[in-house]
Amino acid sequence: MRLKDDGKIEAIFEATIALTSADGLDGLTMSAIAKKAKIASGTLYIYFEGKEQLLNELYRYLMLKGTLSLLPSIAHLPLKQQLFAIWSNVLKFRISNSSQVAFLHQFRYSSFISEESRKVDEQFVGHLAAFLNAGKKEFIVKDMDNNILIPLMYGYVNNLARHFTLKKISLTEKIIEQTFVVCWDAIKA
Amino acid sequence: MRLKDDGKIEAIFEATIALTSADGLDGLTMSAIAKKAKIASGTLYIYFEGKEQLLNELYRYLMLKGTLSLLPSIAHLPLKQQLFAIWSNVLKFRISNSSQVAFLHQFRYSSFISEESRKVDEQFVGHLAAFLNAGKKEFIVKDMDNNILIPLMYGYVNNLARHFTLKKISLTEKIIEQTFVVCWDAIKA
Amino acid sequence: MRLKDDGKIEAIFEATIALTSADGLDGLTMSAIAKKAKIASGTLYIYFEGKEQLLNELYRYLMLKGTLSLLPSIAHLPLKQQLFAIWSNVLKFRISNSSQVAFLHQFRYSSFISEESRKVDEQFVGHLAAFLNAGKKEFIVKDMDNNILIPLMYGYVNNLARHFTLKKISLTEKIIEQTFVVCWDAIKA
Amino acid sequence: MRLKDDGKIEAIFEATIALTSADGLDGLTMSAIAKKAKIASGTLYIYFEGKEQLLNELYRYLMLKGTLSLLPSIAHLPLKQQLFAIWSNVLKFRISNSSQVAFLHQFRYSSFISEESRKVDEQFVGHLAAFLNAGKKEFIVKDMDNNILIPLMYGYVNNLARHFTLKKISLTEKIIEQTFVVCWDAIKA
DNA sequence: TATGAATGAGCCTTCATTCAT
DNA sequence: CATGAATGAAGGCTCATTCAT
Q1: Is A185's pLDDT higher than 70?
Q2: Do B106 and A102 touch (CB under 8 A)?
C-alpha cells in the first residue's frame, strides 16, 4: 500500500463501504469498487495487494478512526460519566455512519477477516474491560466476569445501531440517555 | 421409484451449516454442500430451487425449529420466571449450536436474505415485545419504548453466544443466572 | 421402439412438435416432452433409445405420414395435373400443420439428424425427379438438370409455407392456383 | 494498455461460423468458440454480452455485409438485368460461403433470434418487393401479390445454395444463368 | 411397464488478478 | 503510475440418462 495518498485510498474505501452497504459483501467486486472510485480496476492492485488486504485494511481503518478514536475520553470525570461520554459517542457515530457499520458487521463474520484484524476488536474490548475493572474496584460495577458484562455493552450498541438504522428511527438526546440508563442498570452493582 | 427422502434435506442443511461455519458464507459452494451431504450436485436442485432458496429455507428452519420453538413457555409462571426460562433456553441453544448461530449471523447480513425471511426475525421480536408490554403493565419493566429494550435482549444473547463460542467458554448454570441478572437489571423498572 | 402403441408414442410426438414449434429445438428437453405427454421422463426411454432417436423417428414419421403420403397420386392424369394435385396437397398440408413444419425445418438443420433420416428427403426428391424426367420426355418441362429444377419446387413450397405461417395468411384455392402458376411457369419448357 | 482489437471480433465470428457449420448450432459452446478463436473464454464477454447477443450480432453482420450489400446495384440497367445481377451476386455469395449460410439457416430457426434480428430479413424482403413492384408497373412481372412472388425468389436461392453445398456441386456461369431463367420465367408476366 | 428421484458431465458466465501499453 | 483488455479457474445450474422401486 502506497503511503503517498492522493485521496485515491479514501475514494476506494468510500466506494467499498457504499457498495457493501448497498449490495452486501457478497456481490462486492473489485471492478465495481474501481468503477465507483473512478479508477481502473488495475489501479486497485497498486494500492492494495488484493481484495482480502483491501477489506482488512478498511476494517482496521474504520475501527481505528471510527470507533477507537471515540474512547480516549476525559479521564478526570467520574467513571459513570466517562462511560456515558463513550456510549453517546459510539452510538451517535454508529448510527450516523450506518453504511460503515453495515460493512463492519458483514466483514467481521466473513471469511476475509485476518487474524490481525480480529485483534483490533480486542483492543476495543480491552478498553471496555479496563473501565469495568475500575468500576468494580469502586464497587459501582457488578462484580462479575467481564465475559459476562462486555457482551452486554458490545451487543447492545451493535444491535441498537442496527435496529435504529433498519427502522429508520433517528437518534435523540433523550433516546441516548434512556439507552444509557438501560446499559448502566445492567452493569451497575 | 425412489421417494423423495426428507433425510436428504436434513443432510443438506447440516452440510450447509457446517461448511458456512467453517469457511464462511462466502466460499460456500453448491458442489461443496452436495459433496458433504453425499449427494450429487444436481440433486440439490430437486429439493431446492437454487442456492438462495436453500439458504433462506435453512434460515427459516433454524429460526423456527431452533429459536422460536423455545418461546411458548409456561404461561402460568410469573413474568420474570417466564423470561428466565426463555433466556436460559435460547442461550443454551445458541451456544450448544454455535455452527447454526454462525450461519444465522452470516446469513442475516448477507444479500441472500429474502424479505420473507426477514419477517421471521420480527416474529421473535414480536414475542419479546409482548413480554415487555406485559411487564410494563405490571410495573416491573421499565416504561420505555420497545425499540430501546428489545435491542438489549436481542443484542445481548447474540453477542453472548458469539463471545462464548469464540472464546470457547462453556456455559454453566451459574453463568446463565448471572447473565440473566444483568439482563433483568437492564430492563426492570 | 415398442410396436405395441398405447397412443403414448403419438402423445410423445405431439408433445415434441408442440414444444419445438413454441420454444425452438434448443430448449427442447426430454422432461418437458414427458410432462407435456403426461408420462414420466423415464418412460421416454422405454419407447426410444434417447433424444436423438426420438427426434429422428419423429422426423421420418412426419415425412412419411405427412409429406410422402401425398405423393402417390392419380397416375392416369396428365403430368401437369398430377403435379398440381401434389402441389396443392403438399401446400395445404404444410400450412395447416405449421407446427410440424417448424419442427421439420429446425430438425433438418440440426446436428441431431442422422444419415438415415437425410435419405428420407431424397425419397421425396426422387419422386419429384421422376415427375420432372417424365415431363422432360414429353417436352413440357425445361430440359435442365434436376439439381436446378428441384430446389425451385422444394424451396418454393417450403418458403411459401413458412411465409404464410409467419404472416398468418390463410390459404385459399385462388392462392394455391396462383402459386402453382408461378411454379409451373418456372419449370415448364 | 491493450486496446480492444477489432480483429478479435472477426476471429470470434469466424470461429462461430466454422463451428456451427461443422457441429450444428446445438453443440456450439462458448468455450469452443473461444478456443477456436484463440482467446480465453472470458474474453468473449468483453466483446459480447453473452451467447445470445454474440449470435444475433453475427447474424446481422452476415446479413448486412454479406447479403444486403449485394443489393444496391446498378440502377441504370433495365430491371431484368438488375435482378440478374442481384441473383448472380447472392447465389455466388451464398454458395462460396456455405458455412455462413449454414449458420444463417440454423440461427434463423433457433430460439436465439431476437425481434430486432428478424427485421433484418424484412429489409431484404423489402428490397425484393420494390423490384417486383417496379416490374409490375412495367408489365414485365406477374401482377400477383408479393406474398406469392417473394417466397419463390427467397426460397429458391436458399434451397439452391443449400442443395449445391450438400451435393458439392460447384457453381458455373452456365448454372447461374439457367437458374435465373427458371426464376425469371416464374415471375415474369 | 412405469415412475421420477438421482446422477454428474458440461454449459454459460463471473470476477480476482495479471500484463501489455 | 495508470489503464482496462485479457485471462482462466471456478461457480451455479441444466438436463440427458440411469436406476431403485
Answers
A1: yes
A2: no
CA C76 to mean position of chain CA atoms: 25
pTM higher than the cut 0.70: yes
Among protein residues, the one whose C-alpha sits closest to the C1' atom of E12 is D30
Specify the long-range contacts of residues B80-84, CB closer than 8 Å, at least 24 apart.
B80/B140, B80/B184, B82/B131, B83/B131, B83/B135, B83/B180, B83/B184, B84/B180, B84/B184
Biggest distance spanned by C-alpha atoms of chain C = 58
Q: pLDDT tens across A146-156, in order?
A: 999 999 998 99
Structure confidence by residue, pLDDT tens digits, B42-55: 999 999 999 999 99
Q: Is C170 exposed, middle or buried (0-12, 13-18, 19+ CB in 10 A)?
A: exposed
Q: How far apart are CA B74 and CA B81, in angstroms?
A: 9
Element (DSSP H or E) covering residue A85 = helix A79-96
DSSP state of D29: -
How far the first Cα of chain C sits from its last, in Å, is 47
CB D88 within 8 A of CB D176: yes
- Interface touch A188/B185, C-beta < 8 Å: yes
Rounded-to-integer distance, Cα C39 and Cα C9, Å: 11
Identify the pLDDT of residue C42: 95
Distance CA A9, CA A42 (A): 14
Nearest protein residue, CA measured to C1' of F14:
B42
Distance CA A108, CA A63 (A): 11
A152 touches chain B (CB under 8 A): yes
C-alpha–C-alpha distance, residues B18 and C171, integer Å = 66
For CA atoms A39, A45, A50, A54, the dihedral sign is negative
Is A24 in CB contact (< 8 Å) with chain B?
Answer: yes
Q: Which residue is nearest to nucleotide F21 (CA to C1')?
A: B1
- Tell me the three cell numbers of residue B9: 434435506
User: Which chains would you list as touching A if contact means 3+ CB atom pairs under 8 Å?
Assistant: B
Least confident of B150-154, C70-74, D85-89, D162-166: C70-74
For residue D76, what are the CA distances in angstroms to A79, D67, D128? 101, 21, 17
Q: Exposure pattern of D160-170 as b/e (b: 16+ CB <10 Å)?
A: bbbbbbeeeee
Chains contacting D (3 or more CB pairs within 8 Å): C
Q: Gap from C68 CA to E9 C1', in Å?
A: 40
Contact A17, A58 (CB under 8 A): yes
Phi/psi region, residue C186 (left: phi>0; alpha: psi -120 to 50; beta: rest), is alpha
Bridge partners (DSSP) of residue C141 are C188
Q: Which nucleotide is nearest to C31 (CA to C1')?
A: F15
Question: Which residues are within 8 A (CB) of C10 and not within 5 positions of it... i.e. 6 or more apart?
Answer: none
